[in-house]
Amino acid sequence: MSEVRKPRDPLTGHVKALAKGFKYLVEPNRMTLDYPAETMKLPPNYRGFFTVDDKKCIGCSMCEMVCPPEAITMVPRIIGEGGKTIPAPEGEKEVKGPKRTKRPVVNWGKCIFCYFCVDVCPVDAFIPTQVHDLAFEKDSEYRPSYEDYLKPPEEPYKNSKKVISKADLKRGVSYEPAP
Amino acid sequence: MSEKVYNIDDLQNINVEGEKYIILQIGPSHPGSGHMRLKVWLDGDIIVKVDPDIGFVHRTSEWLSERREWIKAVPIVERIMLPDTVHANLAYVLTVEKLLGIEPPPRAQYLRSLVAEINRITSHLYGIGIFGIFLGSSTVYMWAFGDREPFIDLMEMLTGARITTSYIIPGGVRWDLPNGFKERAETVLQYMERRLKDYEDIWVKNPVVQARTINVGTLKKEDAIRLGVVGPNLRASGVYYDTRKHHPYAAYSNLDFEVPTMKNGDSYDRLLIRVEEIKQSIKLIRQILKDIPEGKIIADQIYNQLNPVMKKNYEEKKRVMFPAFMIHMRPPAGEASAKVEAGRGEIFFYIKSTGDKYPYRFRWVTPSFRNLPYFTHVTVGHRLADLPTIYGSIDYFPPEADR
Amino acid sequence: MGIIPLILWLIQDLLYIIIFPGLVTILVVVVIIIWLERKIAAKVQMRFGPLWVSKKIGGALQSLADLLRYSFQEVIIPEKTDKWAFILAPGLMFAFATIALIFIPVGPYYSVLFPSYYTILFSLALIIITPIFAITVGWASDNKFSFIGALREGFLLISYEIPFLLSVVSMVIIFHTYDYINAVQNQLSFLPGIILNPLAALTMLIVMIRTTGRFPFDITEADSELVMGLFTEYSALFFGVGMATPYVELYNFSLIFSLLFLGGWWPFTLNVMNPVYGLILPGIIVVVKAFIVMAVLVFLRAVYPRYRLDQAVRSGWSYVLLLSILSVILSVVEVMFLR
Fold it and tell me: What is the domain class of B61-402 according to CATH?
C-alpha cells in the first residue's frame, strides 16, 4: 500500500486543491433539500408516526410487551356497536367480561420508531404512515388520549413542494418532484 | 519555548506533580473534545501528559439490557454507537443466535453483510468529516457528511430508517431488498468512486494535510499490539488483522476482499486506511448485490411460528413480522460471545443466559474504548495543535467508548 | 474663506468620516465580505449558505441580522479579567484598523485630513499597531485559551512583519515614492506592480492571509484547540467587533494590494479634478479590485485546513523572509537597469 501513501509534491498539491475548489465554486453541485419549502415523499416502508385500526385490534397487549422504551400503554375499552370501542367507565382498572377489551396508546415522547409493535401485531392492526416531522408544543400532546391517537397524524408544511430523493451520478442525491 | 528535547519513552511515566506546566482542561464543553475531557499538561507548546477523562455519556447499556427481554436490547445497543448502528445490532444478534442455536439462511447473511458494508462507509465518512473539521477544513466536513446521505438513503430504502435501523433480528433480517435497490446502489457507488478522487485532491493529497499528519502520532506495530488497539487504527500500524477475515461472520467467508494495511502508523496512514476501506466496501457491496442468493430471509424456526396473517405479509411485502417467540425468547442456559468488525474496530460481546427471559450477564466492549490508549501514549511530545490531529485520526467516538 | 466654502469643507470632511472611507463603508464592506465568504464556502461545500434572512437576494442581510443579534446580547465581563483592557482592546483594535483607511486613497485627488507624501508609511504604521491590541485581549481575558491564542498571535506577528514591510519597501524602491497616489501614477505610466515585482506581490499575499487569519493560517482562532482563540471570553457586541476586525484589516490590505500591485484605478487614466472623475469612478475601480482580492483570499477557507504554529513560524522565517529579501533585490536590480 506504499503507492497510496506517496506524498504529492507541494506545488502540484496546492494547484490541484485550488483547482478542485474552484471547479466546485463555478459549478455549484448542491445536494441540500430546501427543507420547509420542499419536503420529501418518503418510501412506503419508512417508519413514521403510526396509528391503530380500532376494529382490527384484538387487545392482546403484544405491542405493549415488545415495546423497548415502554412507550405503549393499554387503555381499557368496551366494544360498542359496529366493532368500534367506547371508553370504559372511570376508575375501572381491571377489564373483564366479553365486551371488555384494551387498546394501545403510544407516548410519542418515548417512542423510538423501531416498529417492533407494528411487526409483532398478530392481526397487523397498526397503520403506519411516513409522517416523521411532527412537533409537539405541550406535554399533553406527547401522550395523546386514545381518541386523539386514532386520528391519522397530520403532515406539517402541507403547501410545500413534494419531492422524492433519487440517486444521482453528479450530486449523490437529487430531488425531483414527486409523481 | 523550552529547548528541552523530549524522549517519548521518558515521558510515559512523567511525574507532573509540583512542576510548572500549563494545565489545559479541554472539554467536556469544548469544540475539540467531544463528550469527554482531556486534561493536558503543556510545557510551552509541547504536550507532556494527557489524561483522558471519559464517562460523561455513560448510558448504562449493559445494566438496561440485563433488565429487559432479549429483543429489547437491539435498540439499546444501537443507540450507543450511532454512526455504526448496524454493527452493534449485528454483534448482539450474533451472540443471541449462538445461544439460541439458530442459523440464518444465506440470503439473510448476505443482506446483513450488505447493510454492514453500507454502514461502514457512512461510519468512515463520518470519521473523515470529523477529522476534517478538527484540522479546520469545513469543506471536507460538509462533503463527508453530505456524501453519507446517498448511503443513508440506501439504508432508508432497505430498512425504513436512516440511522437506527434495528434491521437485524435473531434468525434473519426484517425486510428483503426492495425493487430498484440494485440500480440505485450502483449509481451511488459510482458516485462515491468519483467523489473519492475529489477527496484526494482537496484533502488526502492536500499539502497542508500532509504537513499536519505525516509523522504525527505514530504508533509502531509492536506498541499497537501491546496496547490492544483495534480496527483501522491497528491496520494502519501494519498489523494484518480484520475480524471479517480472521473470524468470518455473516456472508464474509464467501466474499472476496482485501484487508488494506499500512506501514508507518501515523495520522496520515490512519486517514489513508479509511479511504482504502471505503474502496473495499464499495467492492464488497457490488459483489454482494451480484452474488446474493434467492431464498428466505428468516430462519425456518422463526418462519414456522408466523401466523397466517404474518405469512401473507411475508409473501406479499417481503416483510418479516415477529412471532410471539420474539417477546418470550428464552435462550437456553449458557454463555456466548461474538466479534464483529465495526467501522472503528472490533466489537466484542459476551452474554450469559440462565434460561430466563432476561440476559443474566450482558457485557460488551466497543472499539473506541479500546482505542483510548492513543491519547495517553501517542500524544506525548507533540505540540498542542497535534492533539486534534491525533484525536481526529483515530476516529474516537466518546459515546461509543462510554457505552 | 467665506461661510459657504467653510460649510462645504465641513460637509466634505463629514462625508469622509461617515461615508467614505468612514464607518458606513466599513459596515457595508464587512457585511458583504462575510456574506461572500460564507456563500463561497457554501458553494464549494455543496450547500446553500445563508439564505432564509432576505431570501430574494440570497441571504445578503444575514450578517446584518447577526450584528443586530450581537447588539442585543448580554455583555458578560468575567470577574478576574483586567476590566479596562478587556473592554477597550477590541474597540481600539477596530479603531486602528479603521483609521488606517484614512491614509489609503482611492482616487487621484483624494486626501482626507491633509495631502501628504508619506501615506504608505502612515497606513503601515497604523496597520502594524492593531496586533498589539490582539495580544492585549489575550492577556486581559484571564483565560488559558485566549492566552495561548495571544502568544500564537505574537509569534506569528513577529515572523511575518518583516516580510510584509520588505515587500512594501521593494515597491517603494521601484516607484520611488512614499505616496500611494504617486505609486499608482507611476504604474499607470509604465506597468502594474504585480508584473514589475511578482515576488513582492506573492509575499504580500501570503502576509495578508496570515495577518487577517484566513486559512491556512487560521492559527490563533483554531477552534478545535483554542475554542475561539483570543475572543473566547467575549460576548455580545465586543465579540462582534472582534470578529469584524480581521475583515476590516483584510479590506485595508486588499486596498493596499490593489493600489501597489494591481495598478490602482487603471484602466481609468483620465486626470481631471472633478468629484465624478477624480473620486467616484476611480474609487469604484479600486474597491472592485480590492473585492476581487478579498474574494480570492476568503475562497481559501474552502480549500485548506490550517497549518500548525511551528510550521507557520518556520515558513515565515525561512521561505517568506527569503522571498521578501529576493523581492527587494529584484527591485534594486530593476531600478538600476530600467531607469
Answer: mainly alpha
